[in-house]
Amino acid sequence: MDPITKENFSSVNIKSLALDKNKFGALTFDSAFPILKKLQNFFVELEDFDYKNLLTQNEINQVESYKTNFVNYLQRLSNFDLGKDPNFNKNVRDSFENEIKNFNDNVAIALRSLYSYLRQEADIKVEMERIFKKMLLVLKKKQRLYLMI
């Protein structure tokens, strides 16, 4: 598997990564999987909202820091292997899953207001585009009417 980076994290198949019975046997990351998938979708959505052009540099740095941590968690998960690591056991798995839960809570607390702002901006943009299209249609109709006169 290629290294997981901030550039390719969105294409990582988290389900196969977290629930791989060949690598983890019965110790799959069932609790972490939905949280990691939710976080992946969250960070992709932030990118879709164009956060780098709408937030302050400090806010961008904050998002980037959390995204880096998320990618590091994915990379750690991809490095776990029951067959290759004699230290991998239920305690290691449970500890990692708790880290993921805590990280998710921290992301929610730290980035919720930024997310709300970006969501609001996206909604405004969609509404403005809708209004613009309506205005364009009205202008085209008026132009046709004018040309008929």
Fill in the keyword field for this structure:
elongated; 6 helices; mainly alpha; 149 residues
Structure in words:
With 149 residues, this protein is mainly α. It has one domain (9-120). It is 75% helix and 0% strand. It is built from six helices and no strands. It has helices at 14-18, 21-24, 32-48, 51-54, 57-79, 90-148. Helix 3 runs parallel beside helix 6 and helix 5 (57-79) crosses helix 6. The termini are far apart. The mean pLDDT is 92.
Explain the layout of strands and helices.
Layout: H1 14-18, H2 21-24, H3 32-48, H4 51-54, H5 57-79, H6 90-148
Helix pairs in contact: 3-6, 5-6
Outline of the structure:
The chain has 149 residues and is mainly alpha-helical. The chain has one domain.
- What sequence of helices (H) and strands (E) makes up the elements? HHHHHH
Average predicted confidence as pLDDT: 92
First-last Cα distance: 68 Å
Question: Looking at the structure, what is the overall shape?
Answer: elongated
Q: How many domains, as an integer? A: 1
Q: State the secondary-structure class.
A: mainly alpha
Count of distinct strands? 0
Radius of gyration: 22 Å
Main sheet summary = none
Share of helical residues: over 70%
Tell me what portion of residues adopts beta-strand conformation. Answer: under 5%
Question: Stretches where pLDDT falls below 50 for ≥5 residues?
Answer: none
Work out the helix count: 6
